[in-house]
């Protein structure tokens, strides 16, 4: 039976992908690196340091670890500054409604984000109250597509993976959910999330009614 839900943050609860894009783009422009939305899409769900490595590989460049860490911090400073203008109006359409519905129906809810800025984002949205457990980029060392962040959330909720549905917008996130034995819902295009158990183009379509209809034997 489904007793819990584990949500990714960036791209599921709020659209930070564009803010991440702008921060990486600024760094890339300063460094003379090529960077576009197609490369940015490959960064969905993966950690900050894995992200800068993807950008370097795309540019056939390599740098020492210390320089890499400094540049990643520079990108993060730009990203964090951009979060200041985020407000409780910046949920993706449908996200707040679903979180509210899950609360009223008494489901357990965890956050399973790769971001080290997750708490800041939740504060800006005033969303912390929707979550019983917060798993973020500081909670586990192995990031998606490894299942560790979702296993962390399930364990803290005292649930088995098969009792939880994971919500993700990243290919690596659905890979992680599957690797951990979770049910999965993908938010985004089929080309990216065709391997999710259930997929919606947007959060606005992901109502509890639709989810219960699909996973009907599990409710
Ligand atoms: C994920 C984003 O949620 O967090 C990635 O999808 C990002 O794009 C990752 O790289 C790490 O985020 P942060 O905030 O710790 O740099
Ligand atoms: Mg995401």
Automatic annotation (TrEMBL):
Keywords annotated in UniProt: Magnesium, Metal-binding
Binding site for Mg(2+): 8, 10, 168-169
Binding site for substrate: 8-10, 24, 43-48, 51, 75, 113-117, 144
Positions marked as site (Important for catalytic activity and assists the phosphoryl transfer reaction to Asp8 by balancing charge and orienting the reacting groups): 113, 144
Listed GO biological process terms: carbohydrate metabolic process
Catalytic residues in the record: 8, 10
Residues spanning the membrane: none
Keyword Ribonucleoprotein: no
Superkingdom to which the source organism belongs: Bacteria
Name of the protein this chain belongs to: Beta-phosphoglucomutase
């Amino acid at each position: 039976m489904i007793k819990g839900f584990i949500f990714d943050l960036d791209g599921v609860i709020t659209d930070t992908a564009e803010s991440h894009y702008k921060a990486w783009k600024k760094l890339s422009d300063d460094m003379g690196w090529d960077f576009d939305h197609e490369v940015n899409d490959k960064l969905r769900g993966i950690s900050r340091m894995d992200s800068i490595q993807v950008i370097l590989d795309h540019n056939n460049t390599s740098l020492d670890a210390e320089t890499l860490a400094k540049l990643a911090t520079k990108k993060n400073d730009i990203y964090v500054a951009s979060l200041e203008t985020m407000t409780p109006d910046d949920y993706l359409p449908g996200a707040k409604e679903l979180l509210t519905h899950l609360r009223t129906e008494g489901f357990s809810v965890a956050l399973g984000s790769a971001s080290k800025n997750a708490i800041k984002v939740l504060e800006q949205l005033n969303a912390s109250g929707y979550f019983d457990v917060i798993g973020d980029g500081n909670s586990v060392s192995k990031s998606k597509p490894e299942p560790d962040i979702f296993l962390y959330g399930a364990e803290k909720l005292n649930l088995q993976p098969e009792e939880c549905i994971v919500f993700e917008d990243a290919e690596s996130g659905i890979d992680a959910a599957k690797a951990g034995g979770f049910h999965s819902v993908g938010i985004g295009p089929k080309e990216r999330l065709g391997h999710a158990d259930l997929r919606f183009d947007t959060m606005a379509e992901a109502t509890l009614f639709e989810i219960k209809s699909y996973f009907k034997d599990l409710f």
